[in-house]
Design a protein that fits this description.
- With 244 residues, the protein is of the alpha/beta class.
- Helix content is 52%, strand content 18%.
- The protein has helices spanning 10-22, 34-44, 69-76, 92-101, 132-143, 153-177, 188-200, 205-214, 218-230, 233-243, and strands at residues 2-6, 26-30, 47-48, 57-62, 80-86, 106-112, 122-129, 147-150.
- An 8-stranded mixed β-sheet has the order 3-2-1-4-5-6-7-8, sandwiched between helices.
- It starts with a strand and ends with a helix.
């Protein structure tokens, strides 16, 4: 199976490395930054191809930022003879775009719920139109130790409103509001929150921005914080007990 990975970033490299290690796969990378494609090919093992190269592949994997996922799907679907896969992080839009761009092919949407350096982990899977190549990809991810579980695009995107958009907004809002407190004053709860701040702010700000733009959730966190701030003693106790 020969695979084209569109997007030479960390997630594209993770996908290529994983399927190449655990399946009979050859990999090519393409990226708007040709030097990035060449660097990824050198790091993973494979080759770099120009984004306008007239070449076809058994499988095309879209590994670009969420805001440009559907554009990339439309552009590169014609390069796929058998299957198209995305690992962009949202699902409803990419799945719909893949249906339109490749109605008769295999279509697979994947969301690794971890940063590539923390692999293996849980991988959400929407097998919109399965087949031997799509199954081989999922088998390779499973062989690498990942827990691949099936879901729907709607269920996934609704979950991301909580586990990504709301969670990140809550942690970053705490970081913005928190004072610089000496360690001797930290409680287990505050220390844990500061650890989360360090983890969240150690990533790529563009990725976190894309998540906030793609999924609702931040407004709900702001509304909840405002409700707590305005609550009298009885209301606070009632809200607290509802959460217990």
């Amino acid at each position: 199976m020969n695979v084209l990975v569109v997007g030479a970033g960390a997630m594209g490299q993770w996908f290529a490395r994983t399927v190449q290690t655990h399946a009979d796969v050859t990999v090519a990378f393409t990226d708007l930054d040709q030097s990035a494609a060449e660097a990824a090919a050198n790091a993973v093992g494979g080759r770099a191809v120009a984004s306008d190269a007239a070449e076809t592949f058994d499988v095309v994997c879209i590994a670009v930022p969420m805001p440009v996922a559907e554009t990339a799907i439309n552009e590169f679907a014609p390069c796929a003879t058998d299957a198209i896969v995305d690992v962009t992080g949202s699902m409803a839009g990419p799945v719909a775009a893949m249906r339109d761009a490749m109605p008769n092919g295999q279509r697979l949407s994947l969301h690794p719920l971890f940063a590539p350096e923390n692999a293996p982990g849980n991988v959400a899977v929407v097998a919109d139109a399965s087949g031997p190549d799509a199954e081989a990809v999922v088998d390779a991810l499973t062989a690498a130790g990942n827990n691949c579980f099936e879901t729907t695009a709607a269920e996934h995107d609704e979950a991301m409103e909580t586990v990504q958009a709301s969670a990140h907004a809550a942690v970053l809002a705490f970081a913005m509001a928190a004072a610089d407190v000496p360690d001797r004053f930290q409680t287990p709860i505050s220390a844990g929150l500061f650890d989360l701040v360090e983890q969240v702010t150690g990533g790529d700000p563009r990725v976190y921005s894309d998540i906030q733009r793609t999924f609702d959730g931040a407004d709900a966190v702001a509304d909840a914080a405002s409700e707590l701030a305005d609550a009298d003693a009885d209301t606070f106790e009632r809200l607290y007990e509802q959460l217990s």
